Sequence to fold (499 residues):
Amino acid sequence: MALDKNSTSYTLTFSVVMVVVVGAALAFTALALKDRQDANAADKKMMDILSAIGVDATRDNAGELFGQYVKSRIALDIQGQAVAEENGTLDLRNAADPFNIDVMKDYRASIKTVAKEKSGDVAGLKQSLASEDLRFPLYICEKDGARIAVVPVVGSGLWGPIWGYVALASDFQTIYGTQFDHKSETPGLGAEIKESFFTDKFTVGKKINLSSPTLFEVVKGGAPTTEYSVDGITGGTITSKGVGEMMNRTLGIYATYFQSQLSTQASR
Amino acid sequence: MSTQTAEVVEKTREPLFSKKNRKLITDPLGDSNPITVQVLGICSALAITVQLQQAVIMSLSVLFVLMGGNVVVSLLRNMIPDRIRIIVQLVIVATLVIIVDQILKAFQPDISEKLSVFVGLIITNCILMGRIEAFALGNKPGPTVMDAIGNGLGYAWILLAVALVRELMGSGAISLPGMGQVKLLPTSWFISEGGVYENNNLMILPPMALVIVGMIIWIQRSRNKALIEEN
Fold:
């Protein structure tokens, strides 16, 4: 073949063909595996929610146990008003199902908002502050005859995102259980937030304060703790602060809803 | 393409399992092992050898990418423009790595989570680019596959050996994909439960992987003095 392999046109053609082939191969793989990956992510989410109410599930029985314990899935808007509720079986394709709300995605978008605020991008800021559209999921579970509310929380640690679930007993104040996880916190320091020695501290009679702007605090090691605060992890200060911040910010949105629920209960 | 087929016919065919080709598999297992002799791919060997199941999945992933990358580059060796060959190699390897990562996420989600970034980092594993640049670019697919299998297995056995020692001594357990972790000792044997045995927690920490690899290197070089460097 009289093809000059060193010519620019050959090199360019080769690159273009290669990129098209590679792109097609990757797109095919991603599409072919998407359903399985989504199902895996959903299973993991169910396991995490169940773990917050003290139920150990495996990937195999997560769906079954989730249906058994989680009685309803509610979506709140930013004012804490319930706007949607689902009680039936889970449908991963139904975007209106509160289970399918991607709180991490919403949180990232709001971080970008803050960045825009700092850079003075007024038009972009207005657009992303249309937070009336934001939805916050709440899971009402029933275990041993008691009602437990599970709230997903997301925030930032030192190196990357942290997230978890906070379960509240039927008075919406006493913490029933917590479950935290992280993407890339330092092993042995910030990464310890997922260990039981840290999450168990939340369950020893700790409460969130619905009537205060600071609902809950993670304080620095050694500082005295109240029923509304818990000891942080030594050497994991920023991650611990992140846990406190995400609990505060997220539970603050739910506080209105909890209080309205409590007052309807009282008036009954 | 026509030149390529003509070229194959012209050359005298060498049997695939000739002595020279067999050496392509056996050499990387021992005297030219990518980890212990060439000291490539150390990073992943240290990071993911806490449990055997992670090491197994990682080895299979590297083997797959190594074979796939080598074969594709070998098939395209007469077509790849010289000036952009490194980029082409990178794109091919990166594509395969992303495919492996996606497959793991779909079929082995728990192990995929533990391996986290290290699957993605296969792209930067020097064994891959090293073999592609040094071998696949100048050889036919047949020998290239042998070379890839050899180097893949050479990488794998070190990984598995290190992981076996670390998991056995650090956690008192063995784990394989699909089976989960199996504790080998009853809990009542542990000091915390009133027994006599204690896991060596040092084994779980990354530096111990380095020490174990060092021991393998030590044993290997004391058996084959030719591997010892001059200074």
In short: The helical segments of chain A are 8-52, 62-69, 103-119, 122-128, 196-199, 237-267. The two ends of chain A are 89 Å apart (CA to CA). Chain A has one domain: 71-267.
